[in-house]
Design brief:
This protein is globular. Helix 6 runs parallel beside helix 7. By secondary structure, it is of the alpha/beta class. It has helices at residues 7-41, 133-137, 139-152, 165-176, 207-213, 223-235, 262-274, 286-295, 311-319, 328-334, 347-362, 364-367, 370-385, 400-408, 412-419, and strands at residues 58-68, 73-83, 86-91, 103-106, 111-112, 116-121, 155-160, 184-187, 191-193, 217-219, 241-244, 279-282, 299-301, 323-325. 42% of the residues lie in helices and 17% in strands. Strand 13, helix 9 (311-319) and strand 14 form a beta-alpha-beta unit. The strands form four sheets. Strands 1, 2, 3, 4 and 5 form a five-stranded mixed beta sheet that branches. A four-stranded parallel beta sheet has the order 11-12-13-14.
Length: 420
Amino acid sequence: MPGNMSDAEKVARKRLAQGAALAGAAGAGYLAARVHSVFAGLSERRPPFKWKPERGRTVFLKGANVVDVKRGQVLKERGVLYRDGQITGLVATRDLEKVEADSVFDYRGRFIIPGLINCHAHALMPGAGLIDLPVLLSLKRQAVRNMEECAFSGVTTVRDASGVAGLLRELSDAVENHRVLGPRIVGCGPCLKPRGGYPEFSRKLPGKAAEKAGDTCLYVNSPESGREGVRRAVEQGARYIKVFLDDVSLFYGARPLPVIDDESLRAVLDEAHRLGRRVAAHQSLLSGFRRAVRLGIDDFEHLPVDGLLEAPDIEAYMEGDHHCTPTACVSMALGIAREGHPLGDDKMVADMQAERRRLTRDLQPVVAELPVIRSNARMVRMFESGKAERSLAARSLSDPERYSRSFNNRNPNIHAMYEA
């Protein structure tokens, strides 16, 4: 009891309390300094525009080389006339001097192409392999920078394949209202999945958080909950609906996972089509691809990495009204062969490894914040050394061997789909 303590014990306790207070103060000071260091190191935000014509004013880009992607031609020394962000005319070479506009820019020697479309992206994701405090602190800046880099690279539309619905809508509104430089965003809002299904790290936000930020995912366990999920996703701005069909985890351990049953998926499709929305499915395994074809899923995200599509699979796909975004770059980014693994001796795998290293060295510093770059460097070292599989984070890290094996097989699924 405190009343029975000796003087020596009282002194020891006092010193212990003082030490704890000092340690806490030192820890808080270190944390504050680290937070300040991260924020101070973030890149400067770019202005949403350098010049903006007044509404109703015409702009003429004179003498440009216009790339006609429908005909596969370059139309030399033409003019492009636009007003209020809409192209109003393509002017022939002989008529360049006849055009009158409020603003005229000499575009001789330059090329004009249609805006590029990124068909599968996650605008709010930082692109970091491992999430730590510096990465968390840089999330907002990296999300905005993702948008800025799209615009600077000629990407004018991004098809977002799931994120936090409310935050994505805020970012999209900021772009549309010229507060942030970036492309228009076509998103699916919260994805639909069973509790515990892929991706395992995606969980429904609790009530207050969901009210403020929007849903990340909506759980489906029946036809009725499937229809309700579609309606809620549309209410939160979904331009299409996304579901997941992987019945085995892509993370280390390859654990079996629950998937939405056929009857509930049919209800999702029916409700989505009633509301004018297509349904896209993440399917990176043969079982998911075949289910998607059989059930009439509209759009396919990725291609199977666990086996080869057979002729009947391709024929059944071609008979339906489907679109596919194969995302080959995902396999290149995640297909990291560990040191000494036989896959590293395969020329195609080795070439992909070399290209990934080149992009990491040359491109990543241009598009990513420093905490993201450092996080990815640590992740690659973990994969290459074999430590990733033994780490505490293994259950939330993609098993790279699936992806590197797809390159080892020369990615025949992509070639087969392309030829079809």
